[in-house]
Target: PadR family transcriptional regulator
Amino acid sequence: MARKDLSAAALLLLGLLHERPMHPYQVHQTLKQRGDDRLASITPGSVYHSMDRLASDGLVEAVGTDRAGNRPQRTTYRLTEAGREAFAARTALLLGEPRQEHPCFPLALSQAHAIDRSVAVAALRARRAATAEELTAWSRRYDGVRSHGLPRRLLLDVEYDLHRIESELAWLDGLLADLDSGALDWDEPVPQSFRDFVAARSRAQATDHVP
Model:
């Protein structure tokens, strides 16, 4: 499997198998307990599917099976050398290469002007409250595991999320303050000078494409 083909779920699976061999159920439970399902869509089905594909591509291999009581038989997998190499290459690529992502919030912001001001403000206040709760919850979890000695290098993704959430919260506070004070006029018309600028640019671009 080429490094570019490793999905987010596959990358999480390979990362976890660096610690020890596991069966898919253990993988799913561990990822959920650590909160890594915020990084990718993690369901029992996606874990089993990803593990099967990783095995068929030689990135993991089965090392044994077991059965507990009436439960289905479980296959334990370990990382192969090819899996380590693919994992390292993909991780380095994602660390160093900015990627164009398409989160929903910027999309909603780009269209917010077209809905009623009161509806937009109510939605933004709801988001602000939810964001503050998220920040409190993740800060508590981060501080808790750090106080028990978990090395910082294992929490860099959480640190990044905390800074992102803090920045979003500060921006929302400023936006809501501007809406409350009237500094941001929801009904301000687009000035004719800007319309003229856009029209002139469109004409120039059309001329540039004339053969």
